[in-house]
TrEMBL record:
It comes from Basidiobolus ranarum. The chain crosses the membrane at residues 46-67, 73-93, 127-149, 155-173, 185-206, 226-247, 268-289, 319-344, 364-385, 397-416, 436-455, 467-487. It is found in: Membrane. It is a multi-pass membrane protein. PROSITE patterns: AMINO_ACID_PERMEASE_1. Keywords: Amino-acid transport, Membrane, Transmembrane, Transmembrane helix, Transport. This is Amino acid permease/ SLC12A domain-containing protein. Its main location: membrane. The keyword Transmembrane helix applies. Residues 45-495 form the Amino acid permease/ SLC12A domain.
């Protein structure tokens, strides 16, 4: 079967022939026809999807390393700054997603409000970011299962995880939402229990060795390695928050996006405050920053494992290994979902082959899912050959491309609000209004840029510049520029005048 890809600028994102009018919102919904995407995600699904994107292996494993690098004070400062950035990004996304809940990807806003070439580059950037994440989680699953079954080939576990996440996403969007709800709930319970137990341990209630606030004045603490220490943690913290924007991807499949999306967005700030700032603060009380165990990102030396062991809880490594396995399944599940909907959106906006816009009777874009699974497998195979050099590049590209997606949110929101006013609309028409506009998206844009270009610091080792290392750090930026310029040159696109931005809600 031949497949033609039409690289032509387009502002059409819903092309189904039959539309259903939503009386309550006035939004003409092109989903709820036979064979179309289904609006079946409930408020609790969206809420937990945003939580699931916030709590990941970065918190369970990398948080201790962050404290080791920047000290307890440096880690708190870095995570707080990233938390502020995420809050502003989510409110920006919330304003656009409630007014215009486009299924598949918020990257479509870049084509509507900035430049079709910008939307094209953002969309493909976001797709391969999550496709590579699938590969990362396949690798992580083999390492985790190796803790229990060291003699079983690693690829066996990776294949099992791939089958599981494909099966979950093949059921329906509600199947994905329900699974993610329970995955996220387990992670939330783990963090809450850890914080409660950590408070008792730090207070000496449970006995054993306790350090408490003395950890914050120990040695170089609270700020270790000065500004560079805070910057290094700043970069790590940013990667830990990848996935919070998934609520924007799922908005178009929500039962009532005008009500449910703002509700999920508003809770992000408090989740960041509790799950990250609270957990980092407790870890700083329990384990000294210079404890050599924090330099390893291993389940046996996870700060959560160490904290529960201080409380005298048995079988902690096995418990945490199981929870981290659930985290990996959750991340892989979300990655496959995000890729599938992003590719579906691109197929319906002439940015990808139309075959990926086909949907089965359960409302699942199966062709888009299969392509993502294949690409994820190919990327995973690079971890098995050539000393994993290519895999390391792909891993770094995946992380950096996530920040590029956040840059796209900030820029799109700045343009959306200006176009909204320029076309005679009033702010009273917005179902949800972002906080501190335009300061919010500007601050988020600046902080994202600092993280992206700050990657170059890692290319210097012992005063020498490592070109291959730098190439890996900036591969995503290079690919983004190629996609943007290639589409722009071929289609001769331009930055859209504010009065010509497509604010149609269909």
């Amino acid at each position: 079967m031949g497949v033609d890809i039409e690289l032509q600028p387009s502002n059409t994102y819903f092309v189904e022939e039959k539309k259903v009018h939503d009386v309550e919102t006035g939004f003409e919904d092109s989903h709820e026809k036979e064979g179309g995407l289904k609006r079946t995600l409930k408020a609790r699904h969206l809420s937990m999807i945003s939580i699931g994107g916030t709590i990941g292996a970065g918190l369970f494993l990398a948080s201790g390393f962050s404290i080791n690098q920047g000290g307890p004070g440096g880690a708190l400062l870095a995570y707080s700054l990233i938390g502020v950035m995420i809050f502003f990004l989510m409110t920006s996304l919330g304003e656009m997603a409630t007014y215009m809940p486009i299924s598949g990807s918020f990257n479509a806003y870049g084509a509507r409000f900035v430049d079709p070439a910008f939307g094209f580059a953002l969309s493909w950037n976001y797709w391969y970011s999550w496709a590579l994440t699938v590969a990362v989680e396949l690798s992580a699953s083999s390492l985790i299962m190796g803790h229990w079954f060291p003699n079983v080939p690693s690829w066996v576990w990776s294949a099992c995880v791939l089958v599981i996440i494909v099966a979950i996403n093949s059921i329906s969007v509600k199947g994905y939402g329900e699974t993610e709800y329970w995955f996220a709930l387990i992670k939330v319970i783990t963090v809450v229990v850890f914080i409660i137990v950590g408070i008792f341990v730090a207070a000496g209630v449970l006995g054993g060795v306790t350090y408490g606030f003395s950890n914050y004045t120990r040695g170089e603490a609270p700020f270790v390695n000065g500004g560079l220490g805070v910057l290094s943690v700043f970069l790590l913290a940013g990667f830990s928050f990848m996935g919070t924007e998934l609520v924007g991807v799922a908005a178009g499949e929500s039962e009532n996006p005008e009500k449910n999306v703002p509700k999920a967005i508003k809770q992000v700030f408090w989740r960041i405050l509790l799950f990250y700032i609270g957990a980092i603060f407790i870890i700083g009380l329990l384990v000294p920053y210079d404890d050599p165990r924090l330099q390893s990102e291993n389940v046996l030396t996870s700060p959560f494992t160490l904290g529960f062991q201080l409380a005298g809880i048995d079988y902690v490594p096995d418990i945490m290994n199981a929870i981290i396995l659930i985290t990996v399944l959750s991340a892989g599940n979300s990655a496959l979902y995000a890729c599938t909907r992003t590719l579906w959106m691109m197929a319906h906006s002439n940015m990808a082959p139309k075959i990926f816009g086909r949907i089965n009777s359960r409302g699942v874009p199966m062709y888009a899912m299969l392509l993502t699974a294949i690409v994820g497998c190919l990327a995973f195979l690079t971890s098995l050959f050539g000393e994993s050099v290519v895999y390391e590049w792909l891993l770094k590209a995946s992380g950096t491309s996530g920040f590029l997606a956040w840059v796209g949110i900030a820029i799109s929101h700045l343009r959306f609000r200006r176009a909204f006013i320029a076309q005679g609309h009033t702010l009273d028409e917005l179902p949800y209004r972002a906080s501190l506009y335009p300061l919010g998206p500007i601050v988020a844009l600046v902080l994202c840029s600092v993280v992206i270009f700050g990657q170059g610091v890692n290319a210097y080792s012992d005063g020498k510049f490592n070109f291959l290392h730098a190439f890996g750090e900036y591969l995503a930026v290079i690919l983004f520029i190629i996609l943007f310029l290639g589409y722009k040159i071929i289609n001769k696109t331009k930055i859209l005048p504010l009065t010509e931005c497509n604010l149609s809600r269909t």
